[in-house]
Structures are given as structure tokens and as C-alpha cells.
Design goal:
InterPro entries: FAD/NAD-bd_sf, FAD/NAD-binding_dom, Ferredox_Rdtase, Ferredox_Rdtase_adrenod. With about 475 residues, the protein is of the alpha/beta class. Strand 11 and strand 12 form a beta hairpin. It has 2 domains: about 190 residues, NAD(P)-binding Rossmann-like Domain (Rossmann fold, 3-Layer(aba) Sandwich); about 220 residues, FAD/NAD(P)-binding domain, CATH 3.50.50. Helix 6 packs across helix 8, helix 12 packs across helix 13 and helix 17 crosses helix 18. Helix content is about 35%, strand content about 20%. It binds flavin-adenine dinucleotide and NADP nicotinamide-adenine-dinucleotide phosphate (NAP).
Length: about 475
């Protein structure tokens, strides 16, 4: 009898877990069937709804993930939300083991006054908008509840403040300043491209609360910003004079040293009178988002690292004018009702991927990816992470604490009894073909179908049919 494993989430970590499970050769004679569930109609998690559209080679990792989901022994169940359509207990009762791989679906807050003003958005909101996520592209064309109406914000904002010095901040900055012709060759949804054509943005201010030796940028991504057309980069050379602790970081951390070299080159560049500017403000902390009915600016101050290692404000505040503020200060994992969760860390407690429930290992429960280790790491990091989790699971099979016994049809029968119609890989391939066809109609390689209705129509369309024609 095969071992039945349900994976909650079809992002990189879930798919890498499915791959490691179905390719296992450690437990002789053990067949494994993996059922990968995702709340969205399509798989791939942040590879589709996070990785920047102007990074096509990274987005193409999708093809590798797709091969695993298409492989024998793996079944994709799209449009099934665990915790809403079925409970964690029901899922656990219908399979032998569950692997939580549902990512980090929320954002970190700054905790400063004015953060809730219209015009103050979290990077995940902007990212889900420009990657064409159905949550923020509702079928009726309105702003989803709780989500800002991004096109309106960008058409009115000349100055944008981006808080944070990580790779997501860099993605956001590029999308804000890159020319629309360059974006047209991406797979961005057509309506996103149209809205970006109407951007008013000329100046983007990036706030790094620590110095240039302490950024979370990777050098390749930082350097890319310096290669954009029609953009002046403004770095204060005084910020590149390193204090003793920054010097130590630069001597011991090769990424920091390379980033400093890139920033030093920018600081020495003459400005070109470009139509866009990115201002990098180091040692600068936001104190408040200013405005009465919408964002009008950000009050900032110089900051420093105190003897306790924490960042603290120093010096007099000053105000940066801005009509939009983007908080790119990291993601945060959410609680899945019925699954263990550590409020402090925003993760599922575990040891080597075995979930800890009420202080003890929970038989048949495992975790991988961002909900296991927190919202850090590139796509490849999730592979070794998933391998660790699957090794723990296979250990448990070897030790006899995890024994195949679930009925193969239990989960599909449960979903059917709820009246659910999950989308599988055949449906994904129809959506994929429809996105390419739609793109080609518009003279582009592909366009993302951003609305749920479009995705469902494409999934149901006969081969080559136009999914868009059915959308209301
Ligand atoms: C904006 C952004 C850009 C990035 N760009 C890059 C890059 O260029 N290169 C790189 O190497 N890394 C990049 N990363 C990092 C990379 O995307 C992550 O390391 C990786 O996606 C984490 O994988 P995951 O499977 O844990 O989570 P996710 O990719 O978030 O996948 C989680 C999946 O779970 C699903 N889900 C959530 N809740 C439920 C539920 N209740 N029931 C069912 N399904 C559920 C979600 O829909 C999602 O599909 C980026 C990250 C972000 C945020
Ligand atoms: N192209 C790529 O490879 C790519 C693209 C996007 C994302 N990713 C990966 O995805 C992961 C998440 O990226 P991320 O950018 O969201 O997170 P991140 O790498 O953790 O960066 C977060 C940034 O926000 C700052 N920050 C946190 N709290 C703050 C606060 N209260 N006030 C001011 N600044 C604050 C951090 O500064 P401190 O350091 O001072 O805390 C840091 O500069 C990373 O591992 C990243 O490499 C990769």
C-alpha cells in the first residue's frame, strides 16, 4: 500500500517536497503518492506571484516545478484552501502524513503613526498587484477589500518612499522606474502594464535603517539597478565612510564588500539629468507617515546601532515628501487554523521538519519552506529544506512510527462531497496555453491572466479557445 502524503502549498518548498518524496529510494519497496493542494487555481506560489516579472530566467524555474507536478505519483489540487474548504483535522484523517508548505502570507509592520493612511502599502500588496494575483485583481475590477487601488496611487504619485534594504525593495524600485517598453517583454498582466504606462513616479527614496555594509541586497540584484536606462542613482559619499563595525563587516562578509563596491561606483557617478531618480538613504529610519487623508510624506531621522545591537534614532527629524510609501521590510507567516503556530516567530514549531504540537512531535505532521524557517532564502534554499523534512518523514517510516494505511480515495471523495472542483495539471496546461495565446495577440510573449474568472475560463476552455471571451 502506498504512503499517501498531502502537501499544503504548491510553491517551491511544497513541490520540492513532492519531488523528494516521489524520488525516494531509501525505504525499500515504499511507494509514495503525493497530493499537492493550493488555495489558488494555479501552482508555483511566489515563483508566479513574487519573482519580479523582469526576471524571466528565475520565473522559468516554473518549468522545473511543473515537471514534478506532472510526474507520476503526484496530483495537483488547485483552488482548495486548507482551513476553509476542509479542516486540518479532516485533511490529516484522509492521508498518512501532511507537509505544511504554505509560505508566509502576510507582511511585517513598521509600527509607526500614519502607517494605515491611504497610499501606505505593504510590498506584498504591490507585488501581488504587479504579478497579477487574483486576490488583488477581483473579477469586478474593483479594489479587493483591504487592498489599495494601485493604479490610482501610481498615477498620482511623483515621489515614493520604499522602506527596507532587501531584494524585495529592489524589485519594487525596478518596477516603479523601469521603462514600460522593457516591461512589455515580460509576462505582466496587460492591465498592469497599462497602469504602469500611466505612472507619474519620478523619484524613489529607499530607506535603509542601517549602513551600506548591512544591507540585505544580493550584489547581482543591486548591480542591475545601476544598469537601468534613464535613471540617476543618488548615494551620499559620506554614507560610504565606514565606522569601525561596518569595516569589520566589510572585511568578513564578501557580499557586503561587493555591495559596497557597487555603491561606491554609484556615488562617484555624475548625474545624467535622467527622468527618474533613486535616492539611497542609509542610516535613515522612518518615524511617521505624514498626511491627513492620504500619504503626504515620511518623517525620518538618522539612526545608529546602539551598544545592544539594536537600531535607534539619533539626531533631528526631517521630512521627505512622498505620495506613496511601500513597506518592504519582510514577510510574515500566518496561522493556519488547526495547525500549530508560534505567534512570536510567525512559524510552525518543528525540529528538522517534524511538527511540534503541544510540546511533543506530532505523528504524521511535517513542515517545509518559509512557514518552517521564516521568510528568508532564495528558491533553491527550499530544496535542501524540503529534503531535510522528507528525510525526517522517511526516518519515521523506517522507525515504524509512520505506517501507510490511508485509503487512496479518501481525499478526493472528501473534496467531492464538499462540492469542490479542484483544478489539476491538465487545467494548468490550458491556462498556460491561454496566457501565451493572449500575449501573442498583444504582440507580447505571454500575459498573465490576473482575474480568477479568466483563469477558470481558460482552465475550462477547449484547446486554443479564447479564455477572455467568457469574462464578465
Ligand atoms: C517578492 C518576492 C520576490 C522573490 N524573488 C525571488 C527571486 O527572484 N529569486 C529567488 O531565488 N527567490 C525569490 N524569492 C524567494 C522565494 O520566492 C521563496 O524562497 C519561496 O517562494 C518560498 O517558498 P514556499 O513554498 O515556502 O512559499 P510560497 O512560494 O509562498 O508558496 C506557498 C503556497 O502555499 C499556498 N497556500 C497558502 N495558504 C494555503 C492554504 N491555506 N491552503 C492551500 N494552499 C495555501 C499559496 O497559495 C502558495 O502557492 C522572492 C520572494 C518574494 C517575496
Ligand atoms: N532576486 C532575488 O534573488 C530575490 C528577490 C526578492 C526576494 N528574495 C529573497 O526573499 C527573501 C525576503 O526578502 P525581503 O526583501 O522581503 O526581506 P529581507 O531580505 O529580510 O530584507 C528586509 C529589509 O527590511 C529592513 N527592515 C526590517 N524591519 C525594518 C523596520 N522596522 N524598519 C526599517 N527597515 C526594516 C531590514 O533591515 P535590517 O537588516 O536592519 O533588519 C532589511 O533591509 C530574502 O531572502 C530575499 O533574498 C530574493
Amino acid at each position: 500500500m502506498p504512503l499517501l502524503v498531502a502537501v499544503v502549498g504548491a510553491g517551491p518548498s511544497g513541490v520540492y517536497a513532492a519531488e523528494a518524496l516521489t524520488r525516494q529510494s531509501r525505504v525499500e519497496g515504499l511507494g509514495v503518492r503525493v497530493l499537492v493542494l493550493d488555495r489558488l487555481p494555479v501552482p508555483f506560489g511566489l515563483v508566479r506571484y513574487g519573482v519580479a516579472p523582469d526576471h524571466p530566467s528565475i520565473r522559468s524555474i516554473r518549468s522545473t516545478l511543473e515537471r514534478t507536478l506532472d510526474a507520476a505519483g503526484v496530483t495537483f489540487y488547485g483552488d482548495v484552501q486548507v482551513g476553509r474548504d476542509l479542516s486540518v483535522d479532516e485533511l490529516r484523517a484522509s492521508v498518512d502524513a501532511v507537509v505544511y508548505a504554505y509560505g508566509a502570507g502576510s507582511d511585517r509592520r513598521l509600527g509607526i503613526p500614519g502607517e494605515e493612511l491611504p497610499g501606505s502599502v505593504a510590498a506584498p500588496e504591490l507585488v501581488t498587484w504587479y504579478t497579477g494575483h487574483p486576490d488583488v485583481h477581483p473579477d469586478d475590477g474593483t479594489a479587493a477589500p483591504g487592498h489599495p487601488w494601485v493604479p490610482g496611487l501610481l498615477s498620482a504619485a511623483r515621489e515614493v518612499v520604499v522602506v527596507g534594504a532587501g531584494n524585495v525593495a529592489l524589485d519594487v524600485v525596478r518596477v516603479l522606474v523601469r521603462g514600460v517598453d522593457e516591461l512589455a517583454v515580460t509576462d505582466m498582466a496587460h492591465e498592469v502594464l497599462v497602469a504602469l504606462r500611466d505612472r507619474a513616479v519620478t523619484d524613489v527614496h529607499v530607506l535603509a535603517r542601517r549602513g551600506p555594509a548591512y544591507t540585505a541586497f544580493t550584489t547581482k540584484e543591486l548591480r542591475e539597478l545601476g544598469e537601468l536606462d534613464d535613471l540617476d542613482l543618488l548615494v551620499d559619499p559620506a554614507d560610504l565612510v565606514l565606522d569601525e563595525s561596518s569595516r569589520l563587516v566589510a572585511e568578513t562578509d564578501r557580499v557586503a564588500a561587493r555591495n559596497l563596491a557597487v555603491l561606491a561606483e554609484w556615488a562617484g557617478r555624475p548625474t545624467r539629468g535622467a527622468s527618474h531618480r533613486v535616492h539611497l538613504h542609509f542610516w535613515t529610519t522612518p518615524l511617521a507617515v505624514l498626511g491627513t487623508t492620504h500619504v503626504e510624506g515620511v518623517r525620518v531621522t538618522r539612526s545608529a546601532i546602539g551598544p545592544d545591537g539594536l537600531v535607534r534614532a539619533t539626531g533631528e527629524p526631517w521630512d521627505l515628501p512622498a505620495q506613496v510609501v511601500v513597506r518592504a521590510v519582510g514577510y510574515r507567516g500566518l496561522r493556519l487554523p488547526g495547525a500549530p503556530y508560534d505567534e512570536r516567530t510567525g512559524r510552525i514549531p518543528h525540529s528538522e521538519g517534524r511538527v511540534i504540537r503541544d510540546g511533543a512531535f506530532s505523528p504524521g505532521e511535517y513542515v517545509t519552506g518559509w512557514i518552517k524557517r521564516g521568510p528568508t532564502g532564495v528558491i533553491g534554499t527550499n530544496k535542501s529544506d524540503a529534503v531535510e523534512t522528507v528525510a525526517s518523514l522517511l526516518d519515521d517510516v523506517e522507525q515504524g512510527t509512520l505506517v501507510p494505511s490511508a485509503a487512496p480515495d479518501a481525499l478526493p471523495a472528501l473534496l467531492a462531497s464538499r462540492g469542490l472542483h479542484p483544478l489539476g495539471m491538465p487545467e494548468w496546461h490550458r491556462i498556460d496555453a491561454a496566457e501565451i495565446a493572449r500575449g501573442q495577440q498583444l504582440g507580447r510573449p505571454r500575459t498573465t491572466l490576473a482575474h480568477r474568472r479568466e483563469l477558470l475560463d481558460a482552465a475550462a476552455a477547449p484547446e486554443g479557445g479564447d479564455p477572455g471571451s467568457g469574462r464578465t
